[in-house]
């Protein structure tokens, strides 16, 4: 019986990694669609979002069943509770990738981002995809050093998010004649990417809690 329980706990970890991999792919495709006006990629992200939702629903049901039937304690309890929390966080990250794809699809055949925003958002895209990759590695290896790097990467995304506001308020924005729709798109996209980084911080802090048992990391994750 204990061996079956152990296998169930391992399955929770495997499913979290699977979710993170799907989120990584979704964000990679969504950002490519945004940069290149790739309609097929945008539609693929939107259509496949339900796959992330399905893994989330399965994980949630599995964790609730483990809590009810096995009544885990100590480290096992942390694994199950953290699994519940992480699955919800990853599901939201998948939604954010879908939102980016929605913007890209909605402006097709034009690009959502005007030329003046290209360089800044190229940096954002690089940073957000690095975060998505780190989240996968973090869930696979539970490396505390990598968790710290995720927190640092989020600081970069926050700084870039602030730059989007400076971009829109700069005198050059008036010169190039940004439309109302472009202003809305820049604002929304900046927010989507910033929130994606925030959720990655939540993942990192929950892994810290899982590994160390330090409740302060868990509290900060809930507040972020």
UniProtKB/TrEMBL annotation:
Keywords: Cytoplasm, Phosphate transport, Transport. SUPFAM superfamilies: PhoU-like (SSF109755). Residues 17-102, 128-207 form the PhoU domain. Gene3D superfamilies: Phosphate transport system protein phou homolog 2, domain 2. Coiled coil: none annotated. It holds the Pfam family PhoU. InterPro entries: PhoU, PhoU-like_sf, PhoU_dom. One of its GO terms (cellular component) is cytoplasm. It is found in: Cytoplasm. The keyword Thylakoid does not apply. One of its GO terms (biological process) is intracellular phosphate ion homeostasis. Homodimer. Belongs to the PhoU family. Plays a role in the regulation of phosphate uptake. This is Phosphate-specific transport system accessory protein PhoU.
